[in-house]
Amino acid sequence: MRKRKLFYFSLCATLLFWFYVIFKIAAVYNALQPIQGTVTQIKKSSNRIPVYILHLQQYKSRFKSVGNGTLSLLKPVPKVNKEVLFYIREQDKAKTRQNDIVPAFGLHHYTLVDCYYFTVRPSLGQHLLIMIIGFMTCCFNAITYAASKTKGSWYVFIASLLVFFLLMLL
Q1: For the chain, what is the HEC assignment?
Q2: 132 or 3, which is more confident?
Q3: What tens digit of pLDDT does each residue of 11-50 get?
Q4: pLDDT at residue 148 tops 80
Q5: Interhelix angle for 2-30 vs 111-120, to 10°?
Q6: d(C-alpha 55, C-alpha 27), whole Å
Q7: Which residue has the higher pLDDT, 20 or 123?
Q8: What is the pLDDT of residue 17?
């Protein structure tokens, strides 16, 4: 009976962690507003994975691409004097009238990739916290498998290990 309770508890903790990340991405994705304009200037960072700051002709503010991970290397480089369409959050809509940096999502239709990185890696502290929680979930599922030796606990452990590696590597 204790093994079954341990299995259900580890399954609930794992699903809560996964659903937190998924629902946070969905909340960011649903709160996006489209912005369209002509690019006048592009500043590229000197990082291994470049971050682009775009200046649009129609707005005073600058727009920063928020993707900062391996999947961001798939994005094409924006061009000067081209019409672009991307998205910003609703709460950042007021910043477009000021001389401020606004996070931009979905440059060249990579909206979900940007929402993922905005949720998982907004800062080093939050990224480390998500990694620690993911690692603790893996450890807890390993303990559950060692105690119960069931196929269900093995599948949950392997799935949590894969999610942890994906969170760490992407």
Answers
A1: CHHHHHHHHHHHHHHHHHHHHHHHHHHHHHCEEEEEEEEEEEEECCCCCCCEEEEECCCCCEEEECCCCHHHHHCCCCCCCCEEEEEEEHHHHHHHHCCCEEEEECCCCCHHHHHHHHHHCCCHHHHHHHHHHHHHHHHHHHHHHHHHCCHHHHHHHHHHHHHHHHHHHC
A2: 132
A3: 999 999 999 999 999 999 999 888 888 888 888 888 778 8
A4: yes
A5: 120
A6: 27
A7: 20
A8: 92
- pLDDT over threshold 90, residue 74: no
Token pair recorded at residue 29: 């994705």
Q: Structure tokens of 169?
A: 């590597």
Q: How far is CA 64 from the centre of its chain?
A: 15
And the tokens for 134? 């993911």
CB atoms within 10 A of CB 32: 19
- How many residues does the structure list for the chain? 170
- Tokens 């119960």 correspond to 148
The amino acid at 9: F
For 106, the token pair is 């979905």
Domains of the chain: 2-26+124-169 (no CATH), 31-119 (2.40.50)
> Cα(16)–Cα(67) distance, rounded to whole angstroms?
25
